[in-house]
Amino acid sequence: MLQLKNELYKSLTYILEDIPTNTQFIRSVLEGHVDGKIFVDREINPSSIYICHKYGMTFLYGDSGNDLFNSQLAEYFRSIKQDEWIQTYPQAWDSFLRSLTESAGVEFYSRVNFAFDQKIFEKNTRHASFDNCTVQEATVDIMKNFNGKVVPKYFWKEFLLPSCKGYVAMVENEPASIAFSAYLHGSDLEIGIETAEKHRGSGLAFAACVALIRYCIEKGMTPIWSCKLDNTASMKLAQRLGFVEIVRFPYYCIPAKDCE
What we know:
The chain has helices at about 25-30, 65-75, 95-100, 120-125, 140-145, 205-220, 230-240; strands at about 1-5, 35-40, 50-55, 55-60, 85-90, 105-115, 135, 165-170, 175-185, 190-195, 220-225, 225-230, 245-255. It is an alpha+beta fold. The protein folds into two domains: about 1-110, Aminopeptidase; about 120-240, Gcn5-related N-acetyltransferase (GNAT) (Aminopeptidase, 3-Layer(aba) Sandwich), CATH 3.40.630.
């Protein structure tokens, strides 16, 4: 298993045409929007590929029966210091990952992709009012310094933050919830959302997302939403914003290991 050189990342963009699920985070790594790493069985025309996004989302692609690559990847999994959340194509990777249940602690989940329905969005937001906050466009400084698990600094290289589009719900002149373009490719904008802990449950995420989606509509862009099936808050928010579930698929977690 080789770690691919950064200058060769774009040579793998052809795989995006094969994958039937949302590929925005893969494209961000391949196009250099965010830091990541890629492992392959060989540099030229690789048949087995593992793509890792800085945030911890990863993708296994290609030949799932490559014994040497698989054994080296399994060894890698046993020493990772950050949880890695894996999507796969094709589905045949499932048997390999299930074989690591005991040795690498693989956990099994489902992920959901949505499609945006503007009619539902308009119906659900037509009379929405946000008296508990002020929503404004997020500055680069806000995007850079907003803290949490799902924030722009984990999805964009710092010098590219001006390319990240976002809106923030402000409470008493402080950023309380941010909706931003976790991935932005062509006319597709995938939404990332984070709310400061003390403000959760106040409808601020909805307010920030409404502003970002209205921006997408105005610019002729397509808002995209994906999340874990067991993320009840994200699932409910997506549906309230006019997103309709289109597909569920296996989602695997390799927990970080204590390597001390």
